[in-house]
Amino acid sequence: MLISEILRIKGNTLFTTTPEGLALDSVSVMVDNDIGSLVVMDHGRLVGMLTFREVLATVARGGGTLGSVRVAEIYDQDPLIATPALDVMELRGRMLERHARYVPVMDGAMLLGVVSFHDVAKAVFEEQVFENRMLKSYIEDSPTARAR
User: Fold this and answer.
1) What is the largest CA-CA distance in the chain?
2) Which domain holds residue 49?
3) Which tens digits make up the pLDDT trace of 85-100?
């Protein structure tokens, strides 16, 4: 299965922020939309990712508050990036290596969406369920099974 298939199923809703934005405002967007990340865009160009990991680290360093921290001070400037033609299993391995929970999907300079580790796990699970169903069907229809 390819990443493009996950995006097709998920839809193309994107949530973004800018480096100049307040981290607290970004947290509100994530909470309101039940998401764990925002793509950080600067003049139409992806420059990084802000995830709950960076937010929580900042809250811990700030004694329990974000205060007036800007996104530019805390976001991941070198996120793992996927292409739509990447195989889901390959992305899963890369995500595990980098401890990445959210990955922007880019087609050249165009942002297509974000896939989460949950999206990848769900796709792998559904693919395995389908394969298991096909194998069981094949076994039940085999000459040996019909002879019983």
Assistant:
1) 74
2) 3-147
3) 999 999 999 999 999 9
